[in-house]
Write a structure and sequence with these properties.
transmembrane, mainly alpha, binds beta-D-glucopyranose, 2 strands
Length: 564
């Protein structure tokens, strides 16, 4: 069965990677900073005694209970405490739908600015919190800011970037997220040493990334796609010329116009996306963010200090371990930046998935060996370090696969007419499952115990299989020509009407639907048996735009035996 379509894009748009586009994308990516800062800050704050004593006295008492009756697995179980972490994501979920309308009507830049300002107010409220209510209202405002930023920034990046660098530039967002998490880990480590109000400083410092993003957004230009969408064609052409560094942007510009006209005809994008021809995008946009959260990554990102305390680390060591995982997260993200447009999305997804499964099973077994079912026992320093190492390898795998790709893939697979709506679905599903994990993890740990790690491993098996079968390769494919990828896919092809693949202004469309390994194998076979090498493969004009693997291969290589 051919599963991963390899599509050779025409890639004929003229232009280079200009410093302007790089700087613009870097500034926009700082939107990820606010997202990351929040992810990283709450775990540390919720493990600070002063914070717990003030806002969550019952958790504090339970944690201090030296009677030894409390299971290690249940030390931190408290629904109000988890609500502090997770309420933000609920607000983000709802806000992303408003953000979608704003992004479409007023442009990507406006959404980013709104996000930054609301987030700033939330940070101030949090830093000044006198009671749980203020704390949670502040978190909700932070959530609204994040809903806006996460809706607009990935789309902005995908639209600004030239196709061949889209993956790398888009991952700038994830990079900024990991830097935000790491920054928060460091801040927590520092403020935990303060005699009092350390938690206030941690929470209030969220204003710093928000300021960077807001000021950045004010100076950013909007994307050509968004200008066209709002009727500013001439400005859009000039912007395109500027970001591509050439006057000859005709091909790309007319694709953008065509895509925009198609999208203007759509009155209700959220209804539109339910139509059969958008089924692949709808399914993938809904499942990828869900799967991303079901990797269990936020168990580590939110609760690393709590988790490491559960594993017997002292206060300091627990916060330090969070700094270590944060650092691994940042460095491993670089791997994806340098490989995503080269090896492609699928390779990273599949390798990362396998690596995560191995680590999760190992951590589950390790915790079982030490705590058993009853949750009584203690990690020796050596075993604690082993757990930390395994968790780092797991975080690295996530950081070069599901982390960045969870945002990149859904943002690049939509035609313009469903792009904003698609991104809202992506953000809201992501936020919904982030909320669920944030809310349920401490209880789940208390009830599923070490089995929790097997639970997540099971999900990673499922999602890796899903990617293998249903997620086509999208590297190097111009964003407005993405329908060709779907049309060529063994399963999704049937959903795409022929006229949806109508944006080819370029002569040679070579579409081959076959898996990477099959393609390689085929090329080796061809060159040895029939003297047809890679070049011959590329030179052959594929008269058929869309073909299934078998039809295609038989058409190109008539000598192939029937059974192939
Ligand atoms: C995810 C977050 C996660 C972060 C870790 C992001 O892609 O959406 O939920 O905490 O990666 O780096």
């Amino acid at each position: 069965m051919a599963v991963g379509g390899v599509v050779v894009p025409s890639g004929n748009y003229e232009g280079k990677v200009t410093p302007f586009v790089v700087v613009t994308c870097l500034v926009a990516a700082t939107g990820g900073l606010i997202f990351g800062y929040d992810i990283g800050i709450s775990g540390g704050v919720t493990s600070m005694d002063e914070f717990l004593e003030k806002f969550f006295p019952s958790v504090y008492a339970k944690q201090k209970d030296a009677s030894g009756h409390e299971s290690q697995y249940c030390k931190f179980e408290n629904h109000l405490l988890t609500l502090f972490t997770s309420s933000l994501y609920l607000a983000a979920l709802i806000a992303s739908f408003f953000a979608s309308a704003t992004t479409k009507k007023f442009g990507r830049k406006t959404s980013m600015t709104v996000g930054g300002v609301v987030f700033l107010i939330g940070a101030v409220l949090n830093g000044a919190a006198m009671n749980v209510e203020m704390l949670i209202i502040g978190r909700l405002l932070l959530g609204v800011g994040i809903g806006y930023a996460n809706q607009s920034v990935p789309v902005y990046l995908s639209e600004m970037a030239p196709a061949k660098l889209r993956g790398a530039l888009n991952i700038g967002f994830q990079m900024a997220t990991t830097l935000g998490i790491f920054g928060a880990n460091l801040v927590n480590y520092g403020t935990s040493k303060m005699k009092e109000n350390g938690w206030r400083v941690s929470l209030a410092l969220a204003a710093a990334p928000a300021l960077i993003m807001t000021i950045g957004a004010i100076f950013l230009p909007d994307t050509p796609n968004s200008m066209i969408e709002r009727g500013q064609k001439e400005k859009a052409r000039e912007m395109l010329q500027k970001i591509r560094g050439t006057d000859n942007v005709d091909a790309e510009f007319s694709d953008l116009l065509e895509a925009s006209e198609a999208s203007q005809r759509v009155e209700q994008p959220l209804k539109k996306i339910l139509e059969r021809q958008y089924r692949p995008q709808l399914v993938i946009t809904s499942l990828i963010p869900m799967f991303q959260q079901l990797t269990g990554i936020n168990v580590i990102m939110f609760y690393a200090p709590v988790l490491f305390k559960t594993l017997g680390f002292g206060n300091d060591a627990a916060l330090m371990s969070a700094v270590v995982t944060g650092l691994v997260n940042v460095f491993a993200t670089f791997v994806s930046i340098f490989t995503v447009d080269k090896f492609g999305r699928r390779a990273l997804f599949l390798e990362g998935g396998a690596q995560m499964i191995i680590c999760q099973i190992s951590v589950g077994v390790l915790i079982y060996k030490v705590f058993g079912v009853a949750g009584e026992g203690a990690f020796t320093p050596a075993l604690g370090n082993l757990a930390l190492a395994l968790i780092c390898i797991y975080v690295a795998a996530f950081a070069w696969s599901w982390g960045p790709l969870g945002w990149l893939v859904p943002s690049e697979i939509h035609p313009l007419e469903t792009r904003s709506a698609g991104q809202s679905i992506n953000v809201s599903v992501n936020m919904f499952f982030t909320f669920i994990i944030g809310q349920l993890f401490l209880s789940a740990l208390c009830h599923l115990k070490f089995g929790l790690f097997f639970f997540f491993a099971g999900w990673v098996v499922l999602m890796t299989t899903f990617v293998y079968l249903f997620v086509p390769e999208t590297k190097n494919m111009p964003i407005e020509e993405m329908n060709r990828v779907w049309k060529a896919h063994w399963f999704w092809g049937a959903y795409i009407p022929d006229d949806a693949v109508g944006l080819q202004h370029h002569a040679a469309n070579q579409l081959v639907s076959t898996s990477l390994t099959q393609e390689l194998l085929l090329n080796v076979l061809m060159s040895t048996l029939f003297g047809l090498g890679d070049e011959a493969w590329k030179d052959r004009e594929a008269a058929v735009l869309v073909c299934h693997r078998r039809g295609c291969i038989n058409g190109l290589y008539p000598h192939l035996p029937e059974w192939w």
